[in-house]
């Protein structure tokens, strides 16, 4: 028997500063309908899918940035997406900036089932970039100013007939993200991202952005026997070129579908969740082969310690 989830990775092209939420939600609905035509059970949208990637600008008074955040989900402007998805019986995963009623700011993804019910919210754990204005940069990456890191960590939820987890962008570069979910039996990890091609602290990495993107997701998938769905907001947004190359990676580590543009583009794959057990039941049988008794440093230590 196989458990098939047909997944769409709904890559988005740029969202410029003056694009309204309403316009963006219309684009999301178009992608959702393409997902419906492709027979998708689940459509995954990128990180911060409702707005431009606003951490590229620094604003001294953070409350002046409040308009980039969502204070409710769904909201009047996002409700049409929820309505259309429910009508089409498609689930979705959507990234957005969240401002909570008690004033906390998170980089968040919400997972919605085919009946419109909210399965879970995930808040980004690994917040990259910098806390303060760095005026000499060609553009800022001030995520550490705009978002606090989640203390909730990585959950795994029963949904879509399997066990699903979420992570956001920079989380995909950290093996711990996948492994914490792997230890909860994850079968599919959903990950939206915004990755500028130009890495200001070390431009020698620019040419490697695509390689590093697939390297981390393919190895994370393989080493944990899980599907990984990586979905970009790509293209030139407010003058900053960002990586496309959205992909669906199998538990074998193989890429089974990949976007070839940097614009709005839906790719899809029939993902057999039972494929995971071929890896988690053999080479990566954690119970049999892991050695947590010698992994203390992984949780007790943050940085490098040289004895
Ligand atoms: N959005 C996000 O997390 N982007 C980071 C860029 C890192 S450079 C500051 C990423 O890992 O792709």
Q: If you average the pLDDT, what whole number results?
A: 98
Radius of gyration: 19 Å
Helix-strand sequence: EHEHEEEHEEHEHEEEEEEHHH
Major β-sheet profile: 6 strands, mixed
Bound molecules: 4-methylsulfanyl-2-ureido-butyric acid
Spatial strand arrangement across the major sheet: 5-4-3-2-1-14
What's the number of helices? 8
How would the global form be characterised?
Answer: globular
- Percent range of helical residues: 10-25%
What proportion of the residues form beta strands (DSSP E)?
Answer: 25-35%
Q: How is the quaternary structure best described?
A: single chain
User: Pairing-aware structural class of the strands and helices?
Assistant: alpha/beta
Count every beta strand, where a strand is a DSSP E run of 2 or more residues.
Answer: 14
- Give the uncertain stretches in residue-range form: none
Give the CA-CA distance, first to last residue.
52 Å
């Amino acid at each position: 028997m196989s458990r098939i989830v047909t997944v769409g990775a709904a890559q988005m092209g740029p969202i410029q500063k003056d694009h309204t939420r309403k316009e963006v939600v219309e684009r999301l609905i178009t992608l959702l309908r393409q997902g419906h035509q492709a027979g998708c059970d689940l459509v995954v949208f990128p990180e911060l899918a409702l707005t431009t990637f606003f951490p590229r600008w620094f604003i001294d008074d953070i409350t002046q940035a409040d308009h980039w955040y969502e204070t409710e989900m769904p909201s009047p402007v996002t409700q049409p997406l929820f309505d259309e998805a429910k009508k089409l019986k498609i689930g979705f995963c959507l990234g957005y900036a969240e401002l909570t009623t008690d004033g906390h700011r998170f980089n968040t993804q919400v997972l919605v089932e085919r009946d419109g019910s909210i399965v879970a919210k995930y808040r980004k754990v690994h917040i990259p970039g910098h806390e303060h204005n760095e005026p000499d940069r060609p553009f800022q990456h001030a995520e550490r100013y705009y978002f606090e890191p989640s203390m909730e960590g990585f959950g795994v939820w029963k949904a879509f007939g399997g066990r699903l987890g979420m992570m956001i962008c920079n989380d995909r570069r950290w093996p711990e993200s996948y492994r914490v979910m792997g230890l909860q039996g994850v079968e599919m990890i959903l990950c939206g991202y915004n990755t500028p091609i130009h890495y200001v602290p070390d431009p020698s990495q620019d040419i490697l952005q695509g390689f590093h993107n697939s390297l981390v997701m393919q190895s994370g998938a393989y080493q944990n026997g899980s599907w990984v769905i990586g979905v970009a907001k790509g293209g030139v947004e407010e003058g900053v070129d960002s990586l496309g190359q959205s992909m669906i990676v199998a538990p074998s580590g193989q890429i089974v579908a990949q976007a070839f543009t940097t614009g709005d583009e839906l790719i899809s794959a029939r993902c057999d969740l039972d494929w995971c057990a071929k890896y988690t039941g053999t080479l990566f049988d954690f119970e049999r082969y892991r050695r947590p008794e010698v992994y203390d440093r992984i949780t007790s230590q943050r940085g490098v310690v040289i004895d």
